[in-house]
Design a protein that fits this description.
By secondary structure, the chain is α+β, with helices and mostly antiparallel strands. It is built from 5 helices and 23 strands. The two termini are about 45 Å apart.
């Protein structure tokens, strides 16, 4: 009896053990900002940021062509000359007329002082002299316009006239590609124009150097579409070392991620595996399981997604590139559940697993 009573007392004093939650292993990863499966590629051509069509301000016969396509020129360098014969004759005629009227003006000045001519006659003679002097200065300027000078440092991209040819005023003789920078000229389809913004980072790959991608950014987008092709002209700027690695006229591909409408191009869309996308709390919208690095608990986070690609979904908003997203196994999770994050090699993820667990020797 004593033994039975003692056993009953011990049973009454004992407390049930609290159940310990077992962390469920899940595959986690960061959203990929460079997933090429969500990127669009556009063909383009390397162009100069500053392209100038050089022409004479007066017409005439082209007698000298001093540079050719591909030549490097400096600001102020003489590029071509027109026949100065007619301009010289016009200057001589204007100078003679100015000298004649200048002599008449001096005689009128003496006569008006002696009251032999009226002041109005002297004023008319003075006005005529001023007009002749202005005509002479104009002819001198016209003579200077027979010399075509480089407005800036650069490379002659095209030559459009030959020596002996008669050119009109404003007719393009050379195309000058300035040294201010290099860009890629591309055409954006009308269906994607809302997904691209000025300032958006992109990657540029030369056809002559496959696999080597240079950083760039969208510098400008035409506000109106081409009436025939229905595409929008855009320029991708290459700065610094990237601009030095390309040559004018090279073919290139521009890779860019989709952009949310109205985002202004501040960042490219992120990519997550198709298996990471879950139904939101409302059962309609999309969401991702995001792991809290401190507690290792998961939280269902609503996100905005783009068009599904093969195996990858672009995420347009809701998470950033530093978030740990459950890439597989999310259908078995519940809100606030503790998980054991692992990478694709089934190894614990540093920063999401206690340091003691990482340091513990394997049994």
């Amino acid at each position: 009896m004593a033994a039975v009573l003692m056993a009953g007392l011990l049973a009454a004093c004992g407390k049930p053990e609290a159940s310990v939650e077992t962390a469920r292993p899940v595959l986690v990863s960061h959203p990929d900002a460079g997933a090429q499966s969500t990127a669009s590629a556009y063909a383009g051509e390397i162009r100069a940021r500053e392209e100038s069509a050089l022409s004479f301000r007066v017409g005439g016969s082209l007698v000298k062509r001093l540079v050719d396509a591909g030549d490097r020129v400096r600001r102020g360098q003489l590029l071509a000359e027109l026949d100065p014969g007619d301009a010289g004759l016009q200057i001589a005629a204007a100078q003679a007329e100015m000298a004649r009227l200048g002599g008449d003006l001096e005689r009128y000045r003496k006569l008006v002082a002696q009251k032999l001519v009226s002041q109005s006659a002297f004023d008319a003679q003075q006005a005529a002299y001023r007009a002749a002097r202005a005509q002479y200065e104009l002819m001198r300027n016209q003579s200077a316009y027979t010399r075509l000078l480089a407005p800036r440092d650069g490379v002659i991209a095209a030559r459009l006239a030959e020596a002996g040819q008669t050119v009109a005023a404003g007719q393009t003789v050379y195309t000058l590609a300035g040294d201010a920078g290099r860009e890629v000229a591309i055409a954006l389809p009308e269906s994607r124009i809302r997904e691209v913004g000025v300032g958006q980072p992109v990657l540029v790959e030369l056809w002559s150097a496959p696999g080597q991608r240079l950083p760039g950014r969208i510098r400008e987008i035409s506000p109106a579409a081409d009436p025939q092709a229905r595409t929008y002209a855009a320029r991708v700027a290459l700065d610094g070392d990237a601009a030095k690695a390309v040559d004018l006229g090279q073919s290139a591909r521009v890779y860019m991620q989709g952009m949310p409408s109205g985002s202004g191009g501040e960042r490219a869309a992120l990519g997550v595996p198709l298996t990471a996308v879950q139904r939101g709390a409302d059962g309609k919208s999309a969401a991702l399981w995001v792991v809290d690095p401190k507690s290792r608990r998961v939280h269902l986070t609503p996100v905005r997604i783009g068009a599904y690609a093969e195996g990858v979904v672009p995420v347009l908003g809701g998470v950033d590139a530093n978030a740990w997203v459950v890439a597989a196994g999310g259908q078995l999770l519940r809100e606030g559940q503790t998980v054991a994050p692992v990478d694709r090699d089934n190894r614990p993820v540093p920063g999401l697993v206690p340091e003691a667990a990482l340091a513990a020797p394997a049994k």
